Amino acid sequence: MTGAIPRRERHGTEITGRVRDETGGPVPASAVTLVDADGRQAGRTAAGEDGAFALHAPARGTYVLIASAPGHQPEAATVNVTDTPVRIEVALRGTGGLHGVIRSSETGVPIMGAAVTVTDPRGEVAGSRLSGPGGDYALPGLPAGTYTLAVNAPGYRPTALAVTTGATVSSRQDVELADGAVIHGTVRLPEGSRPAVTVTLLDTGGNVVRTAAAGEDGRYAFHDLDPGTYTVVAASWSPSRRQVRVTDGVRNRHDVRLS
After folding, report:
1. Which residues, other chains included, contact 81 with Cβ-Cβ below 8 Å and sequence gap of 6+?
2. Which residue range(s) make up the domain with 146?
3. Is residue 1 part of a domain?
4. How much is the pTM?
């Protein structure tokens, strides 16, 4: 009966270590690959939740250990293998990205559900998100460069601005949205009548800007209007027509009485 095969011959030399980020924290599930001097794969594994990994080099020699993970730049390190177990620490740098908070410019209140879109210099969409409950958004993994950041939300004026992202650190860009001008009010009808009422908004040239149907209680509203002078026309029986001037970020009340 032959003797037991020595562990080193059976498995090769053990290489252990840990994959961490720039802060020293673990990078779970990182892919760890070992290649020999000819570029052939000699071993492969995945780091655990604590960033630790272990694999074996089949023989003595010089190897390259490659670690990679989503949201990080890959890293390579030279490993000289003899008969002694090797331990190595690998630090991965984060890739660039963009994050921030969307708020109202008037009240400072965070805006949830704002559409955040980033386009590259060619106009291609590089990423998009909806802001969270705290108005926060994050677009990780953007390559370093200059982008256009566009944000819009119901009831607010959309905005766009140029932003620059770095290669290793996520850039912060908070955005404030101005409240759009609003015309709202109530159409008052003769007692006992509830016909359908259409409310139309005209610009100074007489062009139709918006049209809305008044609710059962007679209320209507036009949101996100450009500054200027408008004419409100409510039609059901005999039409009512009156000019209303609005300024940016102001809610203007205009009630209408139909005879």
Report:
1. 13, 15, 57, 59, 60, 61, 62, 63
2. 97-177
3. no
4. 0.49
